[in-house]
Design a protein that fits this description.
Layout: H1 3-28, H2 31-59, E1 60-65, E2 69-75, H3 89-98, E3 103-105, E4 111-113, E5 116-121, E6 127-132, H4 146-157, H5 166-169, E7 173-178, E8 181-185, H6 193-196, H7 204-207, E9 230-237, E10 243-250, E11 263-269, H8 272-280, E12 287-288, H9 292-297, E13 303-309, E14 312-318, H10 329-337, H11 341-348, E15 353-355, E16 374-375, H12 387-400, E17 404-406, E18 411-414, E19 417-418, E20 420-426, H13 429-444, E21 448-454, H14 456-464, E22 471-477, H15 485-488, H16 506-517, H17 521-538, E23 541-554, E24 581-586, H18 590-593
Parallel strand pairs: 2-11, 20-21, 20-22
Antiparallel strand pairs: 1-24, 3-4, 5-6, 6-8, 7-8, 9-10, 10-11, 12-23, 13-16, 13-23, 14-22, 14-23, 15-23, 17-18, 18-19
């Protein structure tokens, strides 16, 4: 027998000997003693397991995990999933997932590099230099180079393509010193320009041979290839060729990290009624842009909502050139004082909006705190002052301003002027309801008003563009960076400018010009504060409200954060952080995972 065999045999004998000893001990115990021993053994084992579970819980954290899916309903169909051609909401929503730009906006309003690795701005604010990430790629595996950025910008600038983003790039000279560097030269300093670089980048190898004339008809518009967090995996169409369903999956090489959700599906419906029916039937998980009334009517209640302000200003803008009565300061002040804005927010927006006292909604300037999903709460009533309170305030202002109320004619008069105006607006339910509400408040103060409702295209072409109105109820998309130049600078009084109040104030002109050229955020906000004060003194408009976007999401969806959105499609700004599945790992390993 060799040494190894002997050692193995000796070990076995020792084990048998120990087991025999334990057996002898157990035999020596009474049945009651053995029962106690067994119970203590089980208790010890349970205690050890509980201790281990406690330790595991204390040192473990829950983290997002890959998995899960999301199905979203859309009204209409997608035809131009192209960042420089998007027309419809489905176009913009899918493009926001498929494409990425040099920079990306976060829900809190900060702007970070996306396809770019870093950038520099010259001291005079006119030259922006971007360096591309060396590993940036499109969904088809081709690298993103400076040529792709130049191609996209030139396409946006091309008047024959008629890009919706053309105005963002007018006068900008783009060049590429090498394959990974892009330089933009501006004709003058323009602080909001950095946001323009969030424009989704088109792959030149896909679009380079498409003529301007054929640009809107290219199949690449409906089968897009970008570099964003999600790529299109399949498209379903009907017998007319219109898309009925889009399936998107994560792009594993996305610059800011692979998204968690493994599938995002878009299903298209002809109208909102059909979309909400599908949501009630659990055929889709999310819907966007619904009203509080829509939510109240749903039978399904297992959802959360995210409500967030849109940087839009709805108000009544006065054209003093068209209606001489509006040139009187007391008349404009009375029109503003007569309106109960809080009640309009409650009745027209059903509480989902912010009343305004000036041209800049909250969340645009200063700190922006992103909103997160919360349970839907039924609309509650809000306390309001009586209509007579507002009417009395307006009457007092008119009396102090030299106006006298003629009891016989039922009209305010001053010298040879009679206080009577028309109010124009678009044939949209929300605008019509608002216009009629405003008119009732004015009539309660004795002010004569005639509401004129036009189809949107007619309002734009025959009323707004030629400035053929006394007062117009309309909305302005202020945007995240609050470039108010187009809305209030005197140079923008005529078409295609957007100064609907035909407002002219040299001090305001100076403030707006300085603000758009100032890159320092705090300095820019001080300039805008002075601008708001100047506007308040002149009453060129009745600022009414800023609406909120209501986004319905499943209760299981986490990671959703919405800030002050420039457009509804920006609800996807942090889509790569959304998740439904989680893992539990020890905290010491989280740094390695991140």
């Amino acid at each position: 027998m060799d040494f190894n065999s002997y050692s193995e045999k000796l070990t076995k004998l020792r084990v048998v000997s120990r087991l025999s000893f334990l057996d002898d001990v157990l035999r020596a115990l009474t049945p009651g003693e053995r029962l106690v021993l067994y119970a203590l053994t089980i208790l010890l084992g349970a205690s050890v397991l509980a201790l281990l579970a406690g330790v595991n819980s204390a040192v473990s954290v829950t983290i997002p995990a890959a998995g899960g899916s999301l199905t979203e309903g859309e009204i209409g169909s997608a035809r131009f999933i192209n960042p420089i051609l998007t027309l419809s909401q489905p176009d913009e929503d899918i493009a926001a997932l498929v494409y990425s730009g040099l920079m990306r906006v976060l829900p809190d309003g900060t702007i970070i590099p996306d396809l770019a690795s870093h950038f520099d701005i010259s001291e005079d604010g006119t030259t922006y230099t971007f360096a591309l990430r060396s590993d940036a790629t499109f969904h088809d595996g081709k690298p993103v180079t400076a040529d792709d950025i130049l191609f996209t910008v030139h396409a946006a600038q091309n008047p024959d393509i008629k890009s919706v983003r053309r105005s963002d790039w007018e006068g900008v000279q783009a060049s590429a010193p090498d394959a990974h560097t892009i330089v933009f030269k501006l004709p003058h300093s323009y602080a909001p320009f950095i946001e323009n670089t969030t424009l989704g980048i088109l792959p030149k190898h896909v679009w380079g041979n498409v003529s301007s004339k054929e640009f809107p008809f290219s199949p690449a518009n409906t089968h897009p290839i970008g570099s964003g967090p999600y790529r299109v995996s399949s498209v379903d169409t009907d017998n007319t060729g219109s898309a009925t369903r889009y399936e998107l999956v994560p792009f594993v090489k996305y610059a800011l990290g692979k998204p968690y959700l493994q599938n995002i599906t878009f299903i298209f419906y002809p109208n909102q009624e059909e979309m909400l029916k599908a949501f009630d039937a659990r055929k889709i998980d999310t819907v966007s842009g619904v009203t509080a009334g829509d939510l109240e009517a749903l039978n399904r209640k297992d959802f959360n909502i995210v409500r967030v302000g849109l940087p839009r200003v709805f108000g009544v803008f006065f054209n003093q050139s068209h209606a001489p009565v509006l040139a009187d300061a007391s008349a404009r002040a009375a029109l503003d004082a007569a309106v109960d804005k809080r009640t309009i927010v409650r009745t027209v927006l059903q509480g989902y909006g912010e009343l305004l006292e000036g041209p800049i909604p909250s969340g645009v300037l200063g700190e922006n705190l992103p909103a997160e999903p919360t349970p839907f709460i039924h609309t509650t009533s809000m306390q309001n002052a009586s209509t007579s309170t507002y009417a009395d305030a307006a009457r007092a202002i008119l009396s102090r301003g030299g106006w006298k109320f003629d009891e016989k004619t039922g009209a305010w008069k001053k010298n040879k002027l009679e206080f009577s105006i028309s109010l124009a607006t678009a044939d949209e339910p929300e605008l019509v309801l608002t216009a009629n509400s405003v008119a009732e408040y004015w009539r309660a103060a004795g002010i004569r008003v005639n509401v004129q409702v036009y189809a949107l295209s007619e309002l734009n072409n025959t009323v707004i563009r030629p400035r053929a109105y006394d007062a117009v109820l309309f909305g302005e998309v202020v945007g995240r960076t609050a470039d108010l130049f187009a809305f209030w600078h005197s140079s923008q009084r005529n078409d295609p400018g957007l100064n609907l109040a035909l407002y002219a104030n040299s001090k305001v002109d100076t403030l707006l010009s300085q603000a758009r050229a100032t890159t320092d955020k705090q300095a820019r906000e001080k300039l805008y504060a002075q601008f708001v004060s100047a506007i308040a003194k002149d009453d060129p408009a009745v600022f009414l409200y800023s609406p909120e976007l209501i986004y319905v999401v499943p209760t299981k969806l986490a990671g959703v954060k919405l800030g002050a959105l420039a457009t509804p499609s920006e609800r996807y700004l942090n889509v790569y952080d959304w998740y439904t599945d989680t893992d539990s790992v020890w905290s010491i390993f989280t740094d390695k995972i991140n």
